[in-house]
Amino acid sequence: MSEQKYAFSTCLMGEWMVVASAQTLLETLHLETVVDRHAIRLRYTENSVKVDWIKSDLPFNIHAQIAYGFVWICVGEPKKPLFQLEEYAIPQARLVPCGAYGVRTSPLRAIENFLDMAHFPYIHTGILGAEPETMVKPYQVEYRKAIDEIWATECFFTQPLAAPSSSQPQETEYIYRVATPLNAILYKVNTQAEGIIPADVICLFIQPINETQIRAHLLMILDDQISSMTDMVLFQQKIFTQDKPILENHLPLKLPLHQRIEIPTKADALATAYRKWLLEKQWSYGVFSPEKEHVV
């Protein structure tokens, strides 16, 4: 089946999505990539980003902008403005782009994994967690209607190596923010930081190649004046490469939204809120449908 036969997902219409590193586009002036099975061409000209469909004859305009070190596109009219990330503009903060990673998983699985603390001691042993400190303490989850985002606060977890500059274990405070179904942000309080920013910021921006294939774009904004750029990037790359095989072997690859398929626990309060939010949005992209699909 040719690419022209594919429709563009109605769920993705109006959503801001990362499709490339801004630095790469500024250096090459043009590049090609894929979003929801459709190839697009990016061109940087006259101080702006131009985006065209390749081969597809879709009748939708593509809005584009550069923000937070990435190229963002929106197919059709945006549902809302791109979210704010104030820490990015603070001069003394370290801006650490950590690359893009291809992963065979649903965009929603990747976001939900990013929101999960329970796996820290088992997948990120000796870094983000370790036995016997395995309990996820109760935390607060709220839907912020004015900005259409989900936030989780008062999240605490004991970590052997919370950051590249950490010299000893600490109980780390997390704040999770789900800005859109495809973009999540983690605020992580670094007790050894200098107070340049209130917390380190770790961002996961998902580029949906298709419903079970993504490129995960990672960005950190750190209050770390000690570590080298290489050490900071390697730290986050190690975390993500530990998650990658878990995501790729998690069946079904798509995310079930109904509790009868995957039963949540108290530790999954944020994931439960995320799934409920998706249901309320009638979101279907990357969602597992037991009526149509089977787990192999």
Class derived from helix and strand content: alpha+beta
Mass-distribution shape: globular
- Based on CA atoms alone, the radius of gyration comes out at 19 Å
Q: Which bin fits the share of residues in helices?
A: 10-25%
Low-confidence stretches: none
In total, how many beta strands?
13
Main sheet specs: 7 strands, antiparallel
- Specify the CATH class of the largest domain: Alpha Beta
Count of individual domains: 2
Estimated share of beta-strand residues: 25-35%
End-to-end CA span: 24 Å
Adjacency order of strands in the biggest sheet: 7-13-12-11-10-9-8
The pLDDT mean sits at: 89
Question: So how many helices?
Answer: 5
Domain Vanillate O-demethylase oxygenase-like C-terminal catalytic: 104-278
Organism: Acinetobacter baylyi (strain ATCC 33305 / BD413 / ADP1)
InterPro entries: Cholesterol_7-desaturase (IPR050584), VanA_C_cat (IPR044043)
Protein name: Vanillate O-demethylase oxygenase-like C-terminal catalytic domain-containing protein
